[in-house]
Amino acid sequence: MMVRVSRTGPVEAVFEAPPSKSYTHRALIAGALAEGKTRIANPLRAVDTELTAAGLEVLGVAIEWRPGEILITGCGGTFQTEGEVTIDCGNSGTTLRLLASLALLAPHPVVLTGSPRMLERPVGPLARALEGLGGEIVFPGRPGYPPVRISGRLRGGRTEIDGSVSSQFVSSILMAAPCAEEDVEITLPALPASRSYLDLTLDVMQGFGARFERQGYEWFRVESGVPYRGRDYRIEGDYSSASYLFAIAAICGGRVTVRGLNPVSVQGDRRFLDALVSMGCSVTSSGDAVTVERAGDLDGIEIDMSSSPDTVQTLAAVAAVAGSPTTIRGTAHLRYKESDRIAVTADTLRRMGAGVEVTEDSIRIKPAPLHGVAVNPHDDHRTAMAFAVVGLAVGGVVIRDPDCVEKSFPGFWEALYGEGLL
Question: Is the pTM of this model over 0.85?
Answer without folding.
Answer: yes
